[in-house]
Design goal:
single chain; alpha+beta; five-stranded antiparallel beta sheet; 8 strands; 34% strand
Length: 114
């Protein structure tokens, strides 16, 4: 299970970080993934997509294509190709640090596999 780490700051803002497994942390507010001390900055879209996956713990980290399109392209401009490319970018960023995490295609969507 994902451990959500939330730290309260003096100015009452919060920092959203998620521990995916030992050594791998996603700092959502900073758009940074970290594995065993190595860090990689994520562009806004892959960062938002990763946080969407992590919020779907109760469904086994499955996101439907419609969920992805509504959250990443609220103007309705999503296509299956755009969704596929967004997922591929996120997968590539994660794999640069940790090859044990994957995103797999499933019926009508994608699943983050930890």
């Amino acid at each position: 299970p994902i451990i959500k780490i939330v730290k309260e700051m003096n100015d009452s803002s919060s920092i959203r970080s998620y521990k995916l497994h030992e050594g791998f942390i996603f700092h959502a507010d900073q758009k940074v993934i970290e594995f065993n001390g190595r860090q990689k900055y994520l562009q806004p879209q892959p960062s938002k997509l990763l946080e969407l996956f992590l919020r779907m713990e109760e469904t086994g980290y499955v996101l439907k294509n419609s969920d992805i399109s509504e959250n990443l392209w609220s103007d309705g401009s999503a296509t299956n190709d755009r969704i596929h490319k967004a997922v591929a970018r996120l997968r590539s960023n994660i794999k640069e640090l940790d090859s044990s995490i994957d995103i797999e295609k499933c019926v009508d969507g994608y699943q983050l596999v930890l």
